[in-house]
Amino acid sequence: MQGKHGHLSREQKQLALSLHAQGWRRIDIAREIGCSAPMVGLMVRSGKHLDGQPFG
Q: What is the residue range of 28's domain?
């Protein structure tokens, strides 16, 4: 589930990157951490959103 103001926690972001490294599909990662697949795509492409800060 997303944190305050719809932002993902550091733990959610780390889990997303870990699952991606294990070969999970973005849609499955999104369901697991409670966000959208496009948000997962942004995360895994850049790999730099681990500090709990909002995207954008």
A: 4-46
